[in-house]
Amino acid sequence: MTQAKRDKIAPVSIFFLLYISRIVVSMTSVQSASVGLMTTDMLISILLSLGITLLLSLPAIYCYIKHKSPFDIKWVGFFYSLYFIFVAGVNISKFSYFASTTLNPNSQALIYSVIVAACAFYGAYLGIEGLSRFSAFAFILLAASILAALFLNIKNYQEINLYPVITNTNNEILKNTLTITGDSTEIALFLCLTKKVNGRAVKPYVWSVIASFFTIFVLILFVNAVMGDAALLQDFPIYTLFQLAKIGLFERIDVLYISFWIFGIFIKSVLLIYCSGIAFNPMKKSTKSIISSVLALAVAVFFTEFLQVNTVSQVINFVPFVVFCVIIPILTLIFKKRNYGDELVEKF
After folding, report:
1. Residue 342 neighbours by CB under 8 Å, 6+ apart
2. Which of 23, 25, 50 is closest to 309 using CA atoms?
3. Predicted confidence (pLDDT) per residue in 75-116, tens digit
4. Bridge partners for 247 per DSSP
5. Model confidence, pTM
6. How many whole angstroms separate alpha carbon 46 and alpha carbon 74?
7. Phi-psi bin for 308: left (phi > 0), alpha (psi -120 to 50), beta?
8. CB distance 46 to 216 below 8 Å
9. Contact yes or no for 96/112 (Cβ under 8 A)
10. What 3-state DSSP class applies to 319?
11. 166 versus 68: which is more confidently predicted?
């Protein structure tokens, strides 16, 4: 029987954390992030992205199996730390944009960025155990919210809205596929968190990828079937889907969406700040958490105040994804020596 260990998490926690980490990106994807029309062929891009993500995960999985971690090399870990901070800043900016333009148009994005960055510091300082327990609660809330939204939208589901299936060009479908794939930071998070898992981590990771993409697929299916061409007019189509899910004449359940999005961005931000600290060791825990949070806030402010994250090219996500989730794991697998110390500890 697996015993609990301090600063360790159960394998199922990897599933919760990475599932939420992936979902929180897609549930607030802005319309401008896609190429062409937000129509049924977006489902094709999601399925293709699922296959590509699983395929590109193989180097990281084999690094874990062969006990070859890129984080054992200090200078590589330093750049991973910067990568996690950058992704945290981008996600905080997305939340700030969503909150300041949709939830409360009279508010400033900077306020939300500061609040999330402060919460990320606090959560990262507390450690992975508390975050893993909170992720279980957030997963239950997410599952209940999605099931409620889908059930209440069945009456609005019109199959005719799904046709024609193909409206975008092959090039646009490919670009959307790469965009969805590039939004996945979970491969790098998996590599970073494996030493914190009290058990096997491969199956929970693989199932988190499959489950998250399946959930996204179903949500986009309902977006197109319920809203049809009107989906093209929505900045946040999945949020609009939740708004359309009514109980009775006037009540809506979009408050569940908002609640999950707040919990989800908290979990993802904390996870990224925490992993940035793991990747770069030569500092105290509190110091690493403070520096990482401040740098993530600086990135978020840059995107919200100067560039506007909804207009930024998706290349800014895809290139780092290829480098840190694919190229470095492949090079680690080829050139790094096996870490027998980790193997002995695991057997013990």
Report:
1. 67, 69, 195
2. 25
3. 999 999 999 999 999 889 888 888 888 778 888 888 999 999
4. 251
5. 0.90
6. 35
7. left
8. yes
9. yes
10. helix
11. 68
